[in-house]
Write a structure and sequence with these properties.
With about 600 residues, this protein is α+β, with helices and mostly antiparallel strands. It has 20 helices and twelve strands. It folds into three domains: about 10-65 and about 75-155, Acyl-CoA dehydrogenase/oxidase, N-terminal domain (Butyryl-Coa Dehydrogenase, subunit A, domain 1, Orthogonal Bundle); about 160-290, Butyryl-CoA Dehydrogenase, subunit A, domain 2; about 440-585. Helix 1 (about 10-20) packs across helix 9 and helix 10 (about 375-410) packs antiparallel against helix 11 (about 420-430). The protein is globular and about 75 Å long. The mean pLDDT is about 95.
């Protein structure tokens, strides 16, 4: 498999030209996030990724994980790599220095996580979930819980997990049966959870499970769910590990990909004892608000999963580009000289650049929502984050799947052979469109909660921001690439505005019609927003070239932005038509006719 190299040039470009790193670094508490420091952090992260994590990626795929007597053994080298990861302090990049973190912006943390995910997705899921657990406890945990768990979760010495669904529940969490019974000051949990990523592993000395369970005497449905911290090992008053808690991994799922990331079936409360058994759990916040609290963790994870897509897409692109530059076929030339292969490679590059730009833009908005001194600005940025998270998660992962698939096509017959390395990217990233809420659920969340709940206000505000670029593009309309981008962007934004108005007007009277067009609407919003960011990229590149900066990277940026306009952004009007008219045939079909 081709050696992975962090795409530092594009990462720096997006951070500074599109995401607004300077403004984020000026926020209270982020004053130390200087450009030189960020450059050094990304360079060091790239070294660890290239030298340690990427070489383990095919090893983990071949070996997989093994469950032996309740203990999960990860592939050769993985636990040692994790030791290097936490020794470098990488798990604590965005977290409070009070708990040992670096205190850097989420925007910077997202960039480092792109590097980890690009080098080795299976490895990186463990710290991704741990960071989500830290976010959860930071927001909703009591002082006592934070005192026990935060420092070691921030360092990565202990890992965190999410325990939501169960065999009978799937995405319908109202069907959760795991129950919690109060015993003294704490709770005892009994039940079974499925699809628990890194529910058991040999990376860390303790695993801190965040578990949704039914409260004693709580209402039916999701309103009766509470959230509990359930450690693998109980923690003594002095912070050392005590007895093993009453929980264990029953089995590992046999998956299409991500073989080095253990996906566990977890059982809570099987042992019998004088109090009836059960895993000791500690309530987070108030009873019956568990799903509300869990969404803090889930939203963090959804943004991280969109970044997962960026990382895997980048690695798949690098892999295909390297092969095409070496593979000789047809008249003695390498295949990267063939027009269709050039088209495929450019589609991989342009789409990867667009999802990177959107993910980083959302990450910067999250920092603004948390730390900007003006309350109105914080509220506006939070509305933007809420709007964009389902888009980043779904479009980032759908695009990564498409890019990985195209990468196999570039390799031709070799792309279908496991030894080429290309199939692993597709197999690994395919699940990202499914977990943490399928991409269809993300689309329903976008139209049902994020667009219609405020009558389209957040979407309209975003569209207005994007339209503001038109004047600046008009000043450079004599530049062919920028003129094409301007026209395509205006058409796309008109289509997005039309579809948004239709959704807001239709939803109260015909929810099913809106639901039937939710996925194409999400893709429309992503395509238009991605096109806007690519137009901004081209404009920034043009200005720097015009100022005398001679850079192949900037010239390539102009080309990939133009490609995005010509071949992707122009799809927007068709997507709008699908949103406003495509629902009719869907609703005319019956379950037996589908």
């Amino acid at each position: 498999m081709t050696a992975y190299r962090a795409p530092l040039d594009d990462m720096r470009f997006v951070l500074r030209e599109l995401a607004g790193l300077d403004a984020v670094a000026a926020l209270p508490g982020h004053e130390d996030a200087t450009p030189d420091l960020i450059d050094a952090i990304l360079a060091e992260a790239g070294k660890l990724a290239t030298d340690v994590l990427a070489p383990l990626n095919p090893v983990g795929d071949r070996q997989g994980c093994v469950l032996e007597n309740g203990v999960v053994r990860t592939p050769d080298g993985f636990s040692q790599a994790y030791g290097q990861f936490i020794e470098g302090g990488w798990n604590g990049v965005p977290f409070d220095p009070e708990y040992g973190g670096m205190g850097l912006p989420m925007l910077v943390a997202g960039a480092t996580f792109e590097i980890w995910q690009g080098a080795n997705m299976a490895f990186s899921i463990c710290p991704t979930l741990t960071q989500a657990a830290v976010e959860l406890l930071s927001t909703h945990g009591s002082d006592d819980l934070r005192a026990v768990y935060m420092e070691k979760l921030v360092s990565g010495e202990w890992a965190g997990t999410m325990n939501l669904t169960e065999p009978q529940a799937g995405s319908d969490l109202s069907k959760i049966r795991t129950r919690a019974i109060k015993v003294g000051e704490n709770y005892r949990l009994t039940g079974q959870k499925i699809f628990i990523t890194h529910g058991e592993q040999d990376f860390t000395g303790n695993i801190i499970h965040m578990v949704l369970a039914r409260s004693p005497g709580g209402p039916v449905g999701v309103k009766g769910l509470s959230l509990y911290v359930v450690p693998k090992f109980l923690v003594k008053e002095d912070g050392s590990l005590g007895d093993r808690n009453d929980l264990r991994c029953l089995s590992l799922e046999h998956k299409m990909g991500l073989h080095a990331s253990p996906t566990c079936v977890m059982s809570f409360g099987e042992a019998e004892s004088e109090n009836g058994g059960g895993a000791v759990g500690y309530l987070v916040g108030e009873e019956n608000r568990g799903l509300e609290y869990m969404f803090t963790m889930m939203n963090n994870a959804r943004l991280a999963i969109g970044i997962e897509g960026v990382g895997v897409a980048e690695h798949a692109f690098q892999h295909a580009r390297a092969y095409a530059a070496e593979r000789v076929q047809g008249g003695g030339a390498t295949i990267d000289s063939h027009a269709d292969v050039r088209r495929m490679l450019l589609s991989m590059r342009a789409q990867t650049e667009a999802i990177r730009a959107l993910a980083y833009y959302a990450g910067a908005a999250l920092d603004m929502a948390r730390r900007h001194p003006d309350a109105d600005t914080r509220a506006a940025k939070q509305a933007l984050v809420d709007l964009l998270i389902p888009v980043v998660k779904a479009w980032g992962t759908d695009t990564a799947i498409e890019v990985a698939n195209t990468g196999m096509q570039v390799l031709g017959g070799a792309g279908y052979i496991e030894e080429s390395g290309a199939p692993q990217f597709f197999r690994d990233v395919r699940v990202a469109a499914i977990y943490e809420g399928t991409n269809g659920i993300q689309a329903l969340d976008l139209v049902g909660r994020k667009v219609t709940r405020d009558h389209g206000a957040a979407a309209d505000a975003l569209i207005a921001d994007m339209r503001a670029l038109d004047g600046e593009l008009a000043e450079h309309s004599g530049v062919d690439d920028l003129g094409v981008l301007r026209d395509a962007l205006k058409t796309a934004l008109d289509a997005l505005q039309e579809a948004t108005r239709w959704i807001v007007e239709t939803y109260p009277e015909n929810t099913d019609a809106v639901a039937a067009g939710a996925v194409p609407y999400l893709r429309l919003m992503a395509t238009a927003t991605g096109g806007w960011l690519m137009a901004r990229s081209a404009l920034a590149a043009h200005k720097r070239l015009k100022s005398g900066e001679d850079s192949g990277f900037l010239r390539d940026k102009m080309i990939s932005s133009r490609f995005f306009a010509d071949q992707i952004l122009i799809q927007a009007p068709g997507l709008a038509t699908t949103v406003t008219r495509g629902w009719e045939s869907v609703l005319r079909s019956g379950a037996g006719d589908a």
